[in-house]
Structure formats: C-alpha cells, structure tokens
C-alpha cells in the first residue's frame, strides 16, 4: 500500500529558495501539489535563478509559483513579503526558513561585521519569518527552520554560523509551544554536509576529514533534506513538534 503526500490547495513560502536546498524544496513541495512562494534576497544571480526555477515549475502547473524578493535580515522587508502573500493567496500554510549565509573565520580574526551579518540572516531572518509568517499562517500549518550539524559539532571557524544555527533549533522549541494553540507545528532540520555549491567551497582536506565521521560514507543530497521537510509539513508528522531532526548520514563525533 502506497502513502501519498498531497498538499494541493496549500501555500508554501520558502526563504532563500533560488538555489541549493531551498530550490530543491520548492521542486519537492510543488510536486506534492502545493503552491510555492520562492523568496530570494535580490543579490547577485538570485533573482534570475528564482525566476528561472519559477518558470520551470509554472510550465508544469500554470500560476502555481510566485517569486518574492525580500532580505530576511530586515524586518520591514519580511513583513512586506508576508503581506503580499496574504493579498495574493489569502495567507500561507507552510513556512520554510531556509535562507542562510556563511562568513567563516576564526574568532580571533572574525570581524564584528562578519559576526553580525551571519547572525542577522541566519538567526534574525528566522525570527522575522516566524513573527510575520505566523500573522498570515492559517491554523494547523507548519514551520520548518534549517538548523545545522554545526550547532552540535562547533566546526572550526564557525562561531557565528554555529551560534546562529543553535539559536534556530532552540527557537523552534519555543515557537512550537507558542503556536500550538492554533495547531501549528514548528520543527528544525539539522543537515550534515549536503552536496551543494556551498559545500563545494570546503577544502578537499577538510572534506576528507568530514567523510571519516559519516557512517554512510557520503555527503547528503538536497533531495534527502527536502523530503524530510515535506514529511514535517505533511499529516504524517501531525504529532511532531518542537523537534530537531538530524539528517546527516549518521554523523556522531
């Protein structure tokens, strides 16, 4: 007997969805029937990437994907994006807080700007998404925010990133309590090393050392993270809230 996840009639907003894991989440939720709002920060090639992805998905199901530019580190920008979603779709059912940046450097060499920029996007962006997203989210919805294995492992040179991701995972436990009265669930996903353009910047020596810690002996695929997000937003996870689900190939170290 097969079990299908059908999100027809549901609206999913995904931040940082122009590439990588976010883009794969857009494809996965779209395949499950959801209407998708692809957020991008409108820097470098993100607008073009988001519009290209939207065009591909809309060619499969016309009018099912909308592109929305917003810098998640800015409260006003996120609030404006959410109000546009309310006007266009009447609200949202699922929020995926995926947007994140890296500014790796040892603490001794990390500038205050490098610290602040990562905290503002990776942690502040999740706060803004949840705060203003809950204002337009329909009851019995779900929030999934991206944590990281870095929150547990404390990788060298990632004081800003690790602190932000640990904060995200803690924040979801709070949101799960505060939003429960409306039937809204909140969870985090903590991926290990996923095979994306961001992971491609890891030096080869560091990649080899990381691989030694992964029992499955490979880096993860974006699809393997996206399907976990889909599960967490589906009725199959109706009693899962306030959790951090690790998707890391069994990494313990």
Structure description:
The structure is a single chain. With 253 residues, this protein is α/β, with parallel strands linked by helices. It has a single domain, classed as Rossmann fold (3-Layer(aba) Sandwich). The protein has 8 helices and 7 strands; from the N terminus they run βαβαβαβαβααβααβ. The chain has helices at 20-31, 46-60, 75-89, 112-136, 150-153, 159-179, 204-211, 222-233; strands at 11-14, 35-40, 65-69, 92-97, 137-146, 185-191, 244-247. Strands 3-2-1-4-5-6-7 form a 7-stranded parallel β-sheet, sandwiched between helices. Strand 2, helix 2 (46-60) and strand 3 form a beta-alpha-beta unit. Helix 1 packs across helix 8, helix 3 packs parallel to helix 4 (112-136) and helix 4 packs parallel to helix 6. The protein is globular, with a radius of gyration of 17 Å. It starts with 10 loop residues before the first strand and ends in a 6-residue tail after the last strand. The mean pLDDT is 96.
